Amino acid sequence: MQLFSPLDIIGVLCFVGAWIAYAVMVERTRHGRRTLNARMDRYRETWMRRMLVREMRMVDTQIMASLQNGTAFFASTSLIAIGGALTLLRSTEEIQGVVGALPFGIQASRELWEAKTVGLVFAYAFFKFAWSYRLYAYGAILLGAMPFPSEKDAPESEAHVLRTAGLFDSAGRHFNRGQRAFFFALGYLGWFIGPLVLIFTTVLVLVTMWRRQYVSDASSALDIDTGAPTPC
After folding, report:
1. How many angstroms separate the CA atoms of 52 and 149, rounded?
2. What is the DSSP letter of 55?
3. How large is the greatest C-alpha to C-alpha distance in the chain, in angstroms?
4. Are 218 and 212 in contact (CB under 8 A)?
5. CA-to-CA separations, 13 to 8, 25, 157, 202, in angstroms, rounded
6. Which positions ≥6 away from 158 have C-beta within 8 Å?
7. Could you give the 3-state DSSP secondary structure of residue 223?
8. d(CA 156, CA 158)
9. 1 or 156, greater pLDDT
10. What whole-number distance in Å separates Cα of residue 91 and Cα of residue 198?
11. N or C, which end of the chain is more exposed by having fewer CB within 10 Å?
């Protein structure tokens, strides 16, 4: 007996293809330079340059703590979601009975239900958030090693600014990938209703993320200053 119908396979291919295409567009193409994420990356370097000339750096440590706390929250949430997915596997029959009584009446074999549950991508999200948290911890060390303002014109100061900003860029990139996995996981849940719903929810997630990166209120706020941030 074939586990997946042709429509199921089409739906999964659309889901995977949308995820890969979106990731490539925002990270590997020139269109990605106009995303909200990419534009905020440029402000990371500005942050480092302005921190270099500050005598008191308590504000910078508070910003660092908020970045780490946010990443830790999502990493913890990923573990909870993984536990929920494992519960779905363990209680397949009970859940099928409950879901089957709903108005839309989902009908699926135990094997198909378990195959769909295994596909939940929260483990990937956890790895991304955990690595992002580790990179922010490394970034905190580099913040502590930031040269004194009196040394701001030294070549080593310029190199340290760039390496610190680059590490923060990497941490932010992995955090964004983890969030992207969460968003697509929401679209993936549509497959539990049916492959056509999976295609619809995938498109819905894709459009929502595109709007947030290119035409959201946050993106418009950055357009107030059309030039690149001016380093100190």
Report:
1. 6
2. S
3. 74
4. yes
5. 9, 18, 48, 11
6. none
7. coil
8. 5
9. 156
10. 23
11. N
| DSSP state at residue 120 | -
Confidence of residue 232 (pLDDT cuts 50, 70, 90): very low
Task: Enter the tokens of residue 88.
Answer: 């779905």
Gap between the Cα atoms of 26 and 41, Å rounded: 13
Cβ–Cβ under 8 Å, residues 16 and 124: no
pLDDT at residue 101 greater than cutoff 70: no
Separation between Cα atoms, residue 66 and residue 122, nearest integer Å: 23
What letter represents residue 42's amino acid?
A: R
The DSSP line for 1-21 is --SS-HHHHHHHHHHHHHHHH
Q: 90 CB contacts (<8 Å, ≥6 apart)?
A: none
CA 136 to chain centre: 15
- 180 within 8 A of 21, measured Cβ to Cβ: no
Calculate the alpha carbon distances from 84 to 74, 128, 214 in Å: 15, 19, 33
Residue type, position 186, single letter? L
- Amino acid of residue 9: I
